[in-house]
Amino acid sequence: MNEVTVIGLGPMGSALARALLQNGSRVTVWNRTSEKAEPLVREGAVFAPSVAVAVSASPIVIVCVANYEVSRSILGTEEVSTALAGRVLVELSTGSPQDARDSETRARELGADYLDGAILATPPQIGRADTPIFASGSEIAFRRSEPVLKIVAGNLMYMGESVGSASAWDLATLSTLFGAMFGFFHGSLILESEGHRVDSFGSLIADISPVLGQMIKHEGEVIQTGTYEKPQSSIKTCMGTAELWVKQAREARINSDFPTFTKEVFRKAINAGFENEELAAVMKVLRKGA
Ligand SMILES: NC(=O)c1ccc[n+]([C@@H]2O[C@H](COP(=O)([O-])OP(=O)(O)OC[C@H]3O[C@@H](n4cnc5c(N)ncnc54)[C@H](OP(=O)(O)O)[C@@H]3O)[C@@H](O)[C@H]2O)c1
């Protein structure tokens, strides 16, 4: 039977603990606000009276709290530090690659194996076979925690021993998601201004997402190989679209923040001489920073 401790019972930590309980694992939990543990205790979890007791209860200790600062403050006491020796600490709070490196250094000093993870899902998606988690850090820590992590997210991806990798892939993926979301929100303004349904728009995007994914994949290959010269979509063509968004926003009197931002990036790329290159040539402008 898997024995695992979950520290942090916000929406995500609670979902992790519940998925583990449903799988038959022995789950010990701790949360600053103890009332949040009550539903899980009714489902079979053991509530530990302190963080040190929670850590001592299991060989695998998952932490999922608001951020790494909170995690450090929870795990920072002498009692907890002593209890961590010999265990696998799996940090699933969201943080930066440097946060992960700092946590790994501290865990090693305490004699714990450390794995950094990033969950690419919402709490209701926890426990599914297709739910992704990126993990990075010690391969020993990964192998020891793999059976437990696969219960909470079947699509577990080990990104290697370099501990900052999970966070880097997570932040990059979230950047892609939020970029698409802002485009979607502006698209929703356009459709609302013409009296169309936004829920149908969401469904349509979900249906055609493999085609959109192919376009992103192509741009990734172009960036990696630096082959911008034979464009499928030139920056000049894309600028035409951005200008149309701005025009439509003016005509419909809707917000134009997203079109204006996009047009500005294209303008910089055209000024730099990349007008007839692939869309991804904006990277050459973005790499120069602000
Ligand atoms: N929710 C999502 O969709 C999602 C998706 C992917 C990743 N994540 C990541 O998962 C982590 C947890 O997220 P969440 O959605 O469960 O909610 P959250 O609001 O980010 O975190 C809530 C947890 O942090 C604890 N906490 C906050 N400040 C604290 C402090 N000063 N001392 C002790 N504990 C403190 C809370 O304890 P109390 O209950 O006592 O306040 C609770 O256990 C975050 O890093 C988040 O980025 C969340």
TrEMBL record:
Residues 164-288 form the NADPH-dependent reductive aminase-like C-terminal domain. The keyword Oxidoreductase applies. InterPro entries: 6PGD_dom2, 6PGDH_NADP-bd, HIBADH-related, HIBADH-related_NP60_sf, NAD(P)-bd_dom_sf, RedAm-like_C. Pfam families: NAD_binding_2, RedAm-like_C. Keywords: Oxidoreductase. Residues 4-160 form the 6-phosphogluconate dehydrogenase NADP-binding domain. One of its GO terms (molecular function) is oxidoreductase activity. Belongs to the HIBADH-related family. This is 3-hydroxyisobutyrate dehydrogenase. It comes from Paenibacillus beijingensis.
